[in-house]
Amino acid sequence: MRTPRENKAAGRSTCPRCGRKRTDFGCRTVRIGEYCMQAGLYEYAEGYLVYPTYDPPGPAEGAAMVEHAPAVAEAEKAVDAALAEFTAAQSAHFDALLAADQAGVRTSSMVMRQDGAVPVRQRVSAREKARIADAEEAARDRLGDAEEALKRARDRLSRLEHRREAAVRAGRNEDREAG
User: Fold this and answer.
1) For residues 26, 29, 34 and 36, what is the CA-based torsion angle, rounded to 10 degrees?
2) How do strand 40-44 and strand 28-30 relate by DSSP bridges?
3) Predicted TM-score (pTM) of this structure
């Protein structure tokens, strides 16, 4: 029969996690770290931790990284700008929908309210209702355009990242063959 490992943390008589007394069958030090009956394994022994080790990039791999870095950075900036435009367009569309709902104007993008609340209606003229409907339609069009621009920017960034990864992979293979 296997006996439990002796408690190496003799200096600590209580568990720092739960405060119970440390015993051979309760909270104790195990081979891979510290074990608590309530918290489980909470502190790993240093010898059992695996840290990632990376090979330094070779000359061909580094050249591929440097070559594609400006285009990827520019594409990331374009995605950030498109996302900011999309967020602004979405906010404007929500504002236009709120104004239309408050004025009692039914638009094609409105849906039935799910909360069952009756919105407060404002008295507006027919001309004002038409203006609100036109503003909502313009905001919807702007939102659709911003969404398409964001999709195009993300697709372009994805293409450039894949191109960069392929070039880095080819450079890594070239470095392996040379070295």
Assistant:
1) 0
2) unpaired
3) 0.62
